[in-house]
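User: What would this chain look like folded?
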Amino acid sequence: MSIYSALRAGVSGLAAQSSALAVVSDNIANVNTTAYKRALTSFAPLVNGQNQLTTYNAGGVVSQTRRLVEVEGSLEQSRSPIDMAIEGNGFFVVSRVPSQLVEGGDMLFTRSGSFQIDAQGNLVNAEGFFLHGWPVAADGTVDPSPSSLSVLRPVNIGGVGGVAEPTKTISINGNLQANQAVYAGPPAYSAGSLSAPGGISKHFETTVEGFDSLGSARTMSVRFLKTAPNQWAFEVAANPAAAVNLVAHPNGLLASGYLNFNADGTVGSITNLPASNPAAIPFAPFAVDWADATGASNQTITLDMAKGVSQFAIPFGVSSVTSDGVPPGELLGLQLEGAGLLTAQFSNGRTRALYQLPLATFRTANNLEAAEGGTYRTTLGSGPYSINAMNSGGAGKIKSGVLEASNVDLATEFTTLITTQRAYSASARIITTSDQMLEELIAIKR
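Assistant: Here's the prediction, encoded as structure tokens.
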């Protein structure tokens, strides 16, 4: 009987509108959830077979829910530099536990980039999922793979320590007084005379500072003696001398040579002692054999005086001394650079890339299966994942210091809420009316 089919249609309407109400409620509740993707309810008719043309068998309605994963939310500024958002296509690769991913294992994908560092140094988002990336080797290379998860590692900075760099080059900018009288002896100048106790007195001296392999500051004295109208002898010695191996460096002497000036006061050539390369500019690197007690490894240093040292008729003076070494630095924080490189910043001004953050893309992201904590799983409808660096292979761009907001529009949800309420009331009226008609039918036999 058509009345009974009307009752079934009304019940199906109640069920469908109840499901739609649940979807709207979920959307409104998550209006401020980072990277939340709005769900949408669509309706499809249920069609029953019609046995007679004079009667109609109502089928009712069924609801279907889909999530608008591909619709981006707006990007909002954040106070944390490790808060990240994706502009364009793509998902961060995450997992529930900080372990290496395996194919078919516990891999999940999310756009929620509200990351923070936990007690073990792992990068986790607000929902507790661990971020994965490609490790950056010590030489700065990365081994990416668009189809394999095995090369990804949990992003962990717990083992990132301070960085120290030994000095390789020291540059001096200064002037040697041109009207200084030439040293005539006795005794005659020989290599080491300026550094030996009781030796020849220098005409000018300056100190330079570098760093050994352990990041300890090391002071060296550079002494000058005018030996000809356009020639100055110089010596580089450790200060104190005991900082170096005195067998290899008697009196702490590290290097010596001659600065040969042109008539215009610029350096023409630098002669090493012994004269292995009499026209070397800059001065050839000299080896430093540190004393065993320092614990530092041996190193070579280039003293660059070719461009910055002059011989003019003005007083002695050093305007600047620069060194490329740095003392140990402590980790200050992380920042995102270049092609998604997560870079550590140290207190000594140095930076080091630790991981490159990839993005996973899908053929149809709207068909991903929603999981807990704003994550997604692959399905047959979504297609397989492809993992690429940002701005390549269809992946979008990772931006730091911002978060993706929910793509829920409250005005739209409130409108849908009203129409859903009215549709639910209408379905309920179908049941009420059908019940009244059945009562009238039953009353006929009385």
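The two ends are 21 Å apart (CA to CA). If you want, I can go into more detail on any region.
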